[in-house]
Design goal:
Elements: E1 3-4, E2 8-10, E3 19-23, E4 46-47, H1 50-60, E5 66-70, H2 76-88, E6 92-96, H3 104-107, E7 112-115, E8 133-136, E9 141-142
Parallel strand pairs: 3-5, 5-6, 6-7
Antiparallel strand pairs: 1-4, 2-3, 7-8, 8-9
Helix pairs in contact: 1-2
The protein binds iron/sulfur cluster (SF4).
């Protein structure tokens, strides 16, 4: 089980997709310079139960074609349950992880993944020098270029 902040519809986190985004609280990675330290507390937010999650998907699925989780890989049974349900709704799935490698049992249920911890000197996906990588797991392609302005290429 894990807690989530209220989900939001987002347009840029998964290129060419409209996603329902869940920010899962309780990230244990403690990256220096983390931009969302307020989400470290696992008691923040509300439990994302199976029924509350299905209720969100029923409410939003006609507006979205993807579900993105910011974290949650540290509670893999809960995350796997949610990814399988997203598949039942015929939605694409994405995980933003601070890990370099995501456990394979999660990876096999994802269409997209962002890997790599936050490093202030390297920047995020919009920065050409970032250590982070965003992959389309169906094609195996790195899609970092989709986050960067053309004059950075
Ligand atoms: S993975 Fe993300 S949320 Fe977790 S500590 Fe690092 S920057 Fe913060």
């Amino acid at each position: 089980m894990f807690n989530t902040l209220p989900p939001k519809i987002v347009f840029q986190e998964v290129p060419d997709h409209v996603s329902l985004a869940f920010l899962i609280t309780g990230c244990p990675l403690r990256c220096k310079g983390c931009h969302s330290t307020d989400s470290w507390n696992k008691l923040k937010g509300k439990p994302l139960t199976k029924s509350s999650y299905i209720s969100y998907l029923n409410r939003y699925h006609s507006f979205i074609n993807c579900v993105v989780f910011f974290g949650g890989e540290w509670a893999s049974p809960a995350l796997i349950e949610k990814l399988l349900i997203a598949k039942d709704f015929k939605l694409k799935t994405c995980l933003y992880s601070g890990l370099e490698q995501v456990p394979v049992q999660i990876l096999t249920l994802l269409d997209f993944v962002k890997v790599g911890p936050w490093q202030r000197k390297r920047g995020g996906l919009t920065d050409k020098n970032t250590n982070q990588r965003f992959y389309d797991l169906n094609s195996g392609k790195c899609l970092n270029f989709k986050f960067q302005s053309p004059n950075q290429q």
